[in-house]
Design goal:
Blueprint (H helix, E strand, L loop, with lengths): L1 H20 L8 E6 L5 H12 L4 E5 L9 E2 L2 E2 L1 E6 L2 H5 L3 H13 L4 E4 L7 H9 L9 E6 L1 E6 L15 E4 L6 E5 L6 E9 L6 H10 L14 E2 L2 E2 L1 E7 L8 E4 L6 H14 L9 E11 L10 H15 L8 E4 L9 H12 L5 E4 L13 H17 L8 E2 L12 H11 L3 E4 L14 E3 L2 E5 L1 E2 L16 H8 L3 H8 L2 E7 L8 H16 L3 E3 L3 H11 L15 H5 L13 E5 L5 H9 L4 E3 L22 H5 L10 E5 L9 H8 L4 E6 L2 H14 L3 H5 L2 H6 L7 H11 L4 H9 L7 E5 H6 L1 H12 L11 E4 L4 E5 L5 E2 L14 H10 L1 H14 L5 H6 L2 H7 L1
Parallel strand pairs: 1-2, 1-5, 5-6, 6-15, 16-17, 16-24, 16-25, 17-18, 19-20, 20-22, 23-24, 26-28, 26-29, 27-28, 29-30
Antiparallel strand pairs: 3-4, 7-10, 8-9, 8-11, 11-14, 12-13, 14-15, 21-22, 31-32, 32-33
Helix pairs in contact: 8-9, 10-11, 20-23, 24-28
């Protein structure tokens, strides 16, 4: 009793510290993960957990020659360090190990180690016995054991989520892959978890001999400890280095993450060692939807007894989960379509309707994407609304679920419109965003003011009615409940909207069986607090916690079978561009756009009434209008047509690479690069010609040399738009996070201006255009205009408008010299980056970088 009281006080202190850290920029720090190799199962499990709880991480594979940058000026970049193999740390060269240790001490960062038989080679074992670089670890271990009967140290200061509720009896998974720790000083090390050895018929003498043969400790410092708790002799398999020796706290796992309690302890270790900067709240919101009420064939529908059992179970759950109430989804057309007993169950549902919250499906469970006429869809929904009014069903939650998730994602505009008009829906849920699998990456978004939450599965489907017929056997479901997938879902997700179906509550009532045991298991072995909120309040909490998810990321619906099946047949993904000219502005992108449209088989988007030839879909508020809006700018092409878009605002916008690559994966992007000094001057003159008051009252030199502290916001803004786009390497590197270098086409802007025919020849080859046109016959230099124009059939030239090809005064020499110096280092980085990408270098860049600098760069 005393130990549990101290544990509760410890949890309370954790929550105080976590609340103190809320809003702290350091809570967004990454986890630095060192992995043995890309094939490491343990490494994949580590990354999967980090992704599930939304901890950002940076993985490094294999032996480490150079550490990544650990700090930004005076701030640390990482709040936790993880090694899936303790010997990766021990093999660090002295300099790297000292640097890493210094970082941990200076920024109070802890380390998680894993020690399993797979991480120990004969060479490592020999080193462990002989190396002098291990004096900071006065501890020994033995690996390769089979263990049983796992328990937690109730006095451990690390435990937060994990609840020490007794012994987890039975053999532990991964036999022969466990490690235990021995010969430690209790001042330096604190046990976190214990287990016992499985009796394999060998004497304990042989076990101790094996222990001695695998010692890993400073031979000058050996401590004997009893490792006794509650009078029993237990083996320590997770241990906490308190940092007494060197100021660095570490937690060492003597096993992998296949054991469910290790996943709980992993999260606790991450929270504790990061000083609570990495944490997930203890609150877990649970909502259980029962889809398809009144829908189902005879013998799979609920009787009166089943309905009464549902009410009894709901009342029992409320004792553990405040405000718990089942959410019932109805399609009114199918009521009283069962046998006599099942129809009696339907009548009882209607009689005691106030016991539940109700949400609409569709009148006859039809999929929304099959309705392209919005009036027909709204009228169809209204039938279900009238049914709800007639039977006094409580639909005040303003929550709905689309049958088979149709229309939620990929978005069907008509569904969102009718949901608002007929039901005033404010929230829904789906398992399809961004993809069904992997389920730990499901996320939420907001569209048309309807909040879409991620939906989870509990392992029950319409066909899972009887326990002994469960796919794979009953043990599959039982294991999912007892630490498996269902338990992990609740552990990792603060918001759990579970999908179940009407048949799961009849026959063996598997849903009641599942949730009864799942809720008990969670509350027995963890300190997680289960509760329920109304759907709209749940959605508000979700997006307050994850505001970065509010804006959706549109994907190509045709690239995934499940998405294509719930997308309107009237739509086609061929109505999307096959390449995009992304900018930057004032480098010749308009001229390139014009040249491309001269080709009979290359078609651009239709003009926008506000942004002319540029759609600017990916870079602004237009993105939230959805892909239907975007596709309306493009015709349905024939087999020969290649469509493209040009929006020069895309290049510098940090949101665009992720958005564009999601909708148009593996499509070419075209970047036009001119001398950044000339580009900056051209932008200034562009703004001046449009009457910008800042440009008309300040010289170009004044703008670019202005100091931020003494400048007005308008001067700072103009300076930013002049100078920042010319930091080409920085922006291209942002694109390369999402786009392969093979898909990036670099165009020399100066060559495009002086010799467009040659550029267009190569452009057609790069894009794979089948019918290559000779632009020498299509373009002619116009001396009066000062640039190339299109040759028409009547022999006259067709040129771009008056705003193109303006003659500007020469840039002042002092300004030119300043800009050449300003861009010198960025241009060097660009030169090196284009080398790495195996791209041709623009002529102006080659001229700017001297031979000496080229040799240094290489």
């Amino acid at each position: 009793m005393h130990s549990e009281q101290s544990r509760c006080q410890s949890v309370s202190r954790f929550e105080d510290l976590i609340n103190h850290n809320k809003g702290n920029p350091q809570t967004r720090l990454k986890v630095l993960v060192f992995l043995k190799d890309t094939r490491s199962t343990l490494g994949k499990n580590i990354m999967s957990i980090l992704e599930s709880v939304r901890f950002k991480y940076h993985p490094i594979y294999g032996d480490i020659k150079n550490l990544p940058l650990l700090t930004d000026n005076t701030k640390g970049r990482y709040s936790l360090i993880i090694f899936d193999n303790i010997f990766t740390y021990l093999r660090l060269n002295l300099w790297n190990r000292q640097m890493l240790d210094k970082y941990c001490r200076n920024f109070d960062v802890g380390v998680i180690f894993f020690q399993t038989p797979g991480s120990v080679s004969n060479k490592d074992t020999e080193k462990a016995n002989q190396s002098t670089q291990i004096s900071g670890f006065p501890i020994s271990f033995v690996s390769g054991l089979t263990l049983k009967d796992y328990s937690l140290n109730s006095l451990s200061s690390v435990l937060r989520i994990a609840r020490p509720a007794g012994t987890i009896e039975g053999n532990l998974p991964s036999p022969g892959e466990w490690t235990i720790f021995n010969n430690y000083n209790e001042t330096l090390y604190q046990p976190i978890a214990y287990a016992q050895q499985v009796d394999d018929g060998k004497s304990f003498f042989n076990f101790k001999r094996k222990l001695k043969a695998n010692l890993y400790f400073d031979p000058n410092i050996i401590y004997e400890t009893s490792q006794k708790e509650d009078g029993g002799n237990k083996l320590v398999t997770v241990i906490h280095d308190t940092g007494y020796c060197d100021g660095i706290q570490r937690i060492i796992f003597g096993g992998n993450l296949k054991f469910w309690m290790h996943k709980v302890l992993f999260l606790d270790a991450a929270t504790y060692l990061s000083r609570y900067k990495l944490n997930i709240p203890l609150e877990r919101y649970v909502q259980v939807d029962i889809d398809d009420v009144f829908v189902g064939r005879t013998t799979t529908r609920m009787t009166e007894n089943d309905v009464n059992a549902l009410v009894r179970f709901q009342n029992e759950v409320r004792k553990k989960i405040p405000h718990f109430r089942f959410m019932l989804g109805f399609s009114g057309k199918f009521i009283f379509h069962g046998n006599e007993e099942e129809n009696a169950g339907d009548r009882l549902f209607l009689k005691i309707h106030d016991n539940f919250s109700w949400f609409p499906h569709m009148w006859s469970h039809m999929q929304a994407h099959l309705f392209n006429n919005v009036t027909e869809l709204c009228n169809y929904m209204d039938l279900n609304r009238k049914f709800a009014v007639r039977h006094h069903l409580n639909t005040s939650s303003h929550y709905a679920v689309a049958p088979h998730h149709s229309g939620v994602f990929p978005v069907h505009e008509q569904l969102y419109y009718c949901w608002k008009k007929i039901w005033n829906i404010t929230s829904t849920s789906t398992e399809e965003y961004p993809h069904l699998r992997p389920d730990h990456k499901r996320r939420g978004f907001i569209y048309k003011n309807i909040k879409v939450l991620p939906r989870q599965t509990c392992g029950l489907f319409t066909h899972t009615i009887e326990l002994d017929k469960y796919p794979g056997g009953p043990e599959v479901l039982i294991n999912s409940i007892n630490g498996g997938q269902l338990f992990e879902t609740i552990l990792y997700n603060q918001f759990n909207i579970f999908m179940t179906h009407l048949p799961n509550y009849c026959q063996d009532r598997l849903a009641i069986y599942t949730f009864d045991r799942a809720f008990n298991f969670v509350q027995t072995w963890t300190h997680l607090r289960l509760s329920q909120e109304q759907p709209d309040e749940l959605a508000n909490k979700y997006f307050n916690l994850y505001p970065e998810e509010k804006d959706p990321i549109w994907l190509n619906p045709c690239l995934e079978k499940r998405h294509a099946e719930i997308w309107s047949k009237n739509k086609t993904c061929s109505q999307l561009p096959q390449f995009v000219v992304v900018g930057p502005q004032k480098t010749g992108t308009t001229a390139l756009y014009w040249y491309l449209t001269m080709h009979p088989h290359i078609v651009s988007n239709k003009p926008s009434p506000t942004t002319f030839e540029e759609v600017q879909f990916f870079s602004g508020s237009n993105y939230l209008k959805g892909i239907d809006w975007y596709m309306n700018f493009f015709p349905i092409p024939d087999e020969k047509t290649v469509m493209f878009e040009k929006s020069a605002t895309y290049f510098t916008n940090p949101l665009v690479p992720k958005r564009l690559s999601a909708l148009l994966p593996n499509k070419h992007i075209i970047v036009v690069l001119t001398n950044p000094a000339d580009r900056a001057y051209s932008w200034y003159q562009h703004m001046k010609s449009h009457g910008d008051p800042t440009a008309t009252t300040h010289t170009f030199h004044e703008i670019i040399r202005s100091k931020k502290k003494s400048s007005t916001p308008s001067v700072t803004s103009l300076q930013h738009h002049c100078l920042d786009p010319g930091l080409y390497a920085f922006h291209i590197e942002n694109w390369m996070e999402y786009v392969s270098p093979k898909q990036i086409i670099i165009v020399d802007g100066e060559k495009l201006k002086d010799n467009p025919a040659e550029v267009m020849y190569w452009m057609q080859r790069w894009l794979g255009i089948k019918q290559v046109k000779d632009y020498k016959k299509m373009l002619k230099f116009d001396k009066k205009k000062g640039f190339f124009c299109q040759v028409q059939e009547n022999g006259r030239n067709k040129c771009l408008g008056k705003s193109k090809g303006r003659k500007y005064p020469e840039m002042e020499q002092k300004t030119r010299e300043y800009l050449d110096h300003y861009y010198r280092e960025p241009n060097k980085r660009l030169y090196a980056l284009l080398d790495e990408m195996d791209k041709p270098k623009p002529s102006w860049l080659v001229k700017q970088i001297s031979k000496t600098e080229k040799d240094i760069i290489k």
